[in-house]
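Reviewers asked in the last cycle whether our approach scales beyond single polypeptides. To address this, we selected a multi-component target totalling 1135 residues and predicted its structure end to end. The input consisted of the following lines:
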Amino acid sequence: MGWLLEICDITKSFSGVPVLNGVSLSLQAGEIHALVGENGAGKSTLMKVVAGLHQPDAGELRLDGNPTRFRSPHEALLAGVAMIHQELLPFLDLTVAENIFMGIEPVSGPGWIDRPALHRKTVELLDRLGLKIPPDRRMRELRVAEMQTVEILKALAHNARLIIMDEPTSALTDREAGALFAILNDLRQRGASIIYISHKLEEVFRLADRVTILRDGCHVATHPIGGITTEALISLMVGRPLANRPRSAPGRAAPPILSVRNLALGRRFNNVSFDLAPGEVLGIAGLMGAGRSSLLSALYGLDPADSGQISIGGRALKISSPRNALDAGIGLVTEDRKVSGFIPLFGPRQNMTLAALRRWCRFGWIDQAAESAVADEQIRLFGIRASGRDQPVLRLSGGNQQKVVLARSMLAGPGVLLLDEPTRGIDIAAKEEVHRIVSDLARNGTAILLVSSELPELLSLSHRLLVMCEGRITGTLDPRTTTQEEILTLAMPG
Amino acid sequence: MLKSMIRFRSAFAELLFPALCLALVCGCDRPGTPEQPAKPGTKPIVIGVSLMNLASEFIGMINQSIEARAKELGVQLIVTDAQRSPEKQVQQVEGFIARKVDAIILNPCEVEASSPAVTKALAAGIPIINVNSETRTAPTAFVGSRDEESARIAMDYIATRLNGHGNVLMMQGFLGQAAQIKRDQGAREVLKSRPGLKLLADQTAEWDRAKAISLMENWIQAHGTNIQAVFAQNDEMGMGALLALEQAKLKEKVIVVSVDAISDALQAVKAGRLDATVFQDARGQGSTAVDTALSILRKQPFSPQVFIPFQLVTRTNISNYTK
Amino acid sequence: MSPKPATPKSRTVLRLLERFGLVIVLLIIGTALTLLQPQFLTSANLLNVARQISINGILAVGVTYVLLTGGVDLSLGSIVALTGVVAATFAHPGEWPVLVPIALGILSGACCGALNGLVITRGRIAPFIVTLGMMTLARGLALLLSNGRPVSNLGTGFLAVGGDFLGFPVQILILLAIAGASRLFLSNMRLGRHIFAVGGNEEASRAAGLNVAGIKTFAYTMSGGLAGLAGVMLAARITTGQPNAGVAYELDAIAAAVIGGTSLSGGVGGIGGTLLGALLMGVINNGLDLLNVSSYYQQIIKGIIIIGAVWLDRRQRN
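The resulting structure, written as structure tokens, was:
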């Protein structure tokens, strides 16, 4: 049978830096094709070329054997190619139905939206996938997983034959991810093709028919999923075998640097108490909405707590702004890099020194030489790949962006570092590096509070593990002896 | 005199915020009522006044003369400021009609847009007198001056000084406003009848002194010593032209004449810097408007169109215009 | 690396290219004007242009601070009028040392700006609305203080601000000093860096411990203070404090900054571009007057050139 889509020899550069180097890939109708590779390997760029967001410098796309060129995502959508981005951008104040049919609303007469038809068509779509989302609910009220489903429905409403999904499960719980996979399987049976970008190899093996590995902008290999092992896949991605991670040593018995007593904030969390010692990594496990991120925000003064006590080194402090937290030696790496992590047009240099600029200033004047020296040192230390210390961070890969944010928090010289999903959306090699950095920091005496949705990460990095559920701490576990089942039992409500 | 002005102003500064609050509370209505004991048995005459823009010095002078004359005659006034908004002006006149004033003095913002104010007053049977500017709908009476005349007087003066031969520049007001159109008309009539006068260039400086300085600077570059005279359609622009010429050390060779006789211009004429300005008799307009209103109310004969003449002010007669 | 850029852009070459777009436009227009009217390219005329752009230039530098934080300031023109009146009131001959009116003018402008900033940050009201309110408020104050009349009869010391110094217009010297200092400030000082940060990503700036409200208030105070300086300069140039002066000046200032590459959404831009923008607008004004283009056409041509310059400039960058 013929190919649905052929990607032929696509080359693409951004401001002189090659990102894609003659990549070719063919896609059958009715297959789920996983696309893996480190961040910066060119997965997202390749898919943006396919979806009409970028124009290739050379090479061509063939749809059903016909050379095609999409000058905009809209053209691609009309041809049946839809892309669902990692960060969803729905119209938050419009309804589910309005979002699904945005641009192709059923109309009657001189352009009036035919609301009954809109509702009916939405219900039909929902029924087709056996979903129960009210069509007239506003997007703002949906959970992330539901929003993602709406995006898929939107693609179906446009009769999309090819759906590209970029890291769809990064913000989903396991249960939600399972529901998503069921939908994707269903779509495959109906003959739709799916290109699935993910860092989670377990998902790839569970879902995909074939897998393509990209590295440094080049096509490395394409395999049927049955013909490759996890280890082989990883070594193709990174180009070297993955070393076994040593399990970290338990924390020393030192007096706590951070003590939290009965901390509470509205309905987000309450009665939270724990101690954190220098050099200790304290992991916090829990489902989305368990109050983990809110707790970190409160400790950092972004969203101060209503009641309870925070002490640093035995002294009770009132933390009502990030400035207070920084002055008290508390640093935070936020969950959402793009929103609250970095200044997009600043380079690594300006981003890294932002929180502690005073250190390189005399009478308010920045000592540019000293600042640049520190920046270069941090770039080397954290292994940040950028064309220079002033390349806008916006143009770096997710992993490198995260390392810039980490470097900034560390330059402020905190004794306590709060990490909120520090490896979210970054590739395996970068993840490894972040893990190494976290372990090194702890070894050098930094106290670390780590929130992560990836249990293996929590288990390998933490010395102690707290589990939160519905705003309360439901257990303290020893990561050396606990099991995933035990953690999940404590994390599940009810 | 100056010192006392300053004290007056700083006192204002101290009272700034209370004054502002007061202004907010009172809105635009400023009862300018003189505490005149009403004659027993007779109700005092009430006249509503709607002014185009009290922020303008000239309109301020008209207002002062209206208030002074009203006080002399024991007439009660309700003074409102339309702040250049014809819509506001129509609302103000509607307010007067509702309050059943005896007569209305209207200083129109706009020829067309302020017309409904006149129509409504006439329909309510209240006599309405337009002062200074016209409306499309004819009022009971009009008191003002002919803007064309002011430009004619200024241009004639230039022609005389140049013996009918020379190059002239004209600074226009804000394009499309009645005063600009008419002053332009008047100036061009003279230019037509005096073929020896050549209009080198004309350009708008939007009544603004800063813009006039820039325009004059540019003209000096473009035309240099070819310039023999500048006619500016108002004194602000005339002062601007004057400053630019003085800075370029060309004032000795160029005649500058403008219109309005604001105090700055009068000072400049007195000092021999500005050659002439044309005096529009704001006080005459204001007091005549009140007189005309009373004549109408007393059923005495009145003239439906009173033109207060312009007067040329030069160094020879300046003493009549400055204190 | 060459000296640090005023913009947080990466490479110097790239930055030069960006600047180049506007320089090319200026060169084309300058050449065309010289061919059509040789008088354009004389030192006397170029000094003229310099004199004429200085007030808009100062305002544009001021509003650049605000635009960089992602805000906007619509009150500049009214602040010019208010501060001109304030300065003129204290500038009558023989009453106060010449520094008093100058300082009071700048100070009153800075107060208006600070008030803008405080209301915007404490009251969490959109800058557009707050500065629109200040536009009316400051105009009202100017009229109140002056009784609606121009304040004239100013001392020679004060008027010297509008004159020449060693053959150079004092105003352009002030503009160059202010622009130079602002450029250094924005690229080399901590607070300058923070202004870019807040405009680039307010949320992330807050998370990095920056005092976002204070930084914004500073930018508005700067904008107001420089508008005060512009008011003083205008009063000296037109030899009166005019309560009606400066109408719509803020729009010219914002246009100059935006032509110069400062983004209306904040975080991008710089003083060099703003100066070029002001220069372009001044050259167009001057050139059209020299060519004796009719007033009606002048406005049309100016509009086209402003949009065209920005369009060319943005194309150059992509």
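Residues 1-9 of chain C have pLDDT under 50 and may be disordered. We regard this as preliminary and will revisit it once experimental data from Aim 1 are available.
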